[in-house]
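UDP-N-acetylenolpyruvoylglucosamine reductase
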Amino acid sequence: MKGSHGPCSDLTVTMLENVPLAPLTTLKIGGNARWLVRPSGVKGLSRYCRTCPGDLPRFILGGGSNLLVDDNGFHGVVVDLTHTLNAIVVEHQDAHGGILRVEAGAATRKTAHVARQNGLAGLAFMAGIPGTIGGALRMNAGAYGCDVKGVLLDAQLMDATGNLHTRNAQELGLAYRHCDLPKGWIFVSARFHLARGESEAIKSQMRDYNHKRTQAQPLRYPSAGSVFRNPAGAAAWQLIDAAGLRGHRIGDAQISEKHSNFFVNLGAASSLHMEELIELARNRVAQHSGVQLTLEIGILTPQGLRTEPGR
Ligand SMILES: Cc1cc2nc3c(=O)[nH]c(=O)nc-3n(C[C@H](O)[C@H](O)[C@H](O)COP(=O)(O)OP(=O)(O)OC[C@H]3O[C@@H](n4cnc5c(N)ncnc54)[C@H](O)[C@@H]3O)c2cc1C
C-alpha cells in the first residue's frame, strides 16, 4: 500500500508488505520480505534513509542475480531501486568517446546496449550479465577479462543518513567480485568512461560473448551464476568437478551438468536443499583437493545478508 502505513510512512516511497522475493531473483527461491520500499527517486531515497527506523534490517536489492533467499524470507525492509532509479544518459560525447551516466536500478544488459547504440565501446562484457548497475558496482561484475573497475569514472553513493558522496574506482577498492562499500551505503548512480567504437563491431563482440556464455552456462534453468569464488590460481568449477559432483542433486537443487559452479533450480528447489548442496560441495572439495571454497553469492536470511570473506 502506498505511503499509508508501515515503518516509514512517506509519500515519496511506495511501501509494500509481505512481498514474495523469489520472483525478484534469478534463482526463484525464497520467502517473503516483511517490507519492500520503492523510493520515488533520489530525494525519496534520501528521505527514506533519514526517517526509516534504524533497528529494522535493510537490504538493497538489484536484479537478485547473485542471491539465495531463505525459505523463511527476510524480516526487514528490502529497498528496490529498479522501478524508479533506472535512467541511462549519455552525459558527454565527442570523436574520442564519451561518458555514460547510469542510475543504480538500470539493468546491466540494457546499459551495454545503450552504450553500443551510441557508438561507445567498453561495456560489451556486460551484455550477458543479469542484474542492475548497483549490483554490478557492488560485485565489481566482470567477464572475458573486463570488469566494472576498468570502465568506471566514478559512482554516486548515499550514506545511511541520506547524504550523497562521490567515489572513484580506486576509492571504492574494487577488486575481484569485491568492493569496499561502507556499511549501510547505497549506490545511486555511476559514470562510465567509454572509448569511441563502431556500433556493428561492438554488436558482433556481444554476440561472440553471448555465444560463449550459451555454450558454457545452463541458461535455461534458474541460477545465481557462479556460487563460489574462484580461489587463487584455480577455477571453482574444476574443483567441484574433480570432487565428482557434476550433476549431483538434492531435491530440485542441482549442480549443473553443464557448469559445475552453477547450481540450478530444477523447478521447486528450497533454500534448505540449495544450502545442503553448497555445504556438500564445500566439504567434498576440501576433502578432495584441500581447498576451502568461499561463496560468491550472498544468502539473504530473515535477519539479513550473509556473505563470506572476500566478497
Ligand atoms: C546466468 C548468470 C550469469 C552471470 N554471469 C556473471 C558474470 O559473467 N560476471 C559476473 O561478475 N557476475 C555474473 N553473474 C552474477 C550476477 O549477475 C552479478 O553479480 C550481478 O552484478 C549482480 O547484480 P544484481 O543487481 O542482480 O545484484 P543482487 O543480486 O540484487 O545483489 C548483489 C549484491 O549487491 C548489492 N546491491 C545491489 N544493488 C545495490 C545498490 N544500489 N547499492 C548497494 N548495494 C547494492 C546487494 O545488496 C547484494 O549485496 C551471473 C548471474 C547469473 C544468474
